[in-house]
User: Which sequence fits this backbone?
């Protein structure tokens, strides 16, 4: 299996196929980004589709890698969920909920 993957990579590194791959990546990634931009005004997950298109473009283009890195820097880092206090019995204690009764 590894030799097959190595052969495929070697095949795709040929100069003619390399430029064809760049064109295909540009078309697919560009289309995904355009759809993502359209989803800003249309109902849909634009903030997921645009980075996906940039990730596709980033496989071949340095400028897309830079834009993707900027997009990642804008997002808050995923925080660890807060630790829940445990009772003596080892069961987790749920936080107190305010009463909705007046």
Assistant:
């Amino acid at each position: 299996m590894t030799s097959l993957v190595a052969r495929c990579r070697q095949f795709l590194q040929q100069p003619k196929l390399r430029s064809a791959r760049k064109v295909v990546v540009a078309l697919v990634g560009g289309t995904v980004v355009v759809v993502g931009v359209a989803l800003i005004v249309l109902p849909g997950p634009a903030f997921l589709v645009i980075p996906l298109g940039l990730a596709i473009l980033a496989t071949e283009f340095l400028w897309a890698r830079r834009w993707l890195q900027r997009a990642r820097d804008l997002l808050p880092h995923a925080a660890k969920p807060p630790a829940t206090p445990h009772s003596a019995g080892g069961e987790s204690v749920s936080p107190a909920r305010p009463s909705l009764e007046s």
About this structure: The first helix runs from residue 2 to 12.
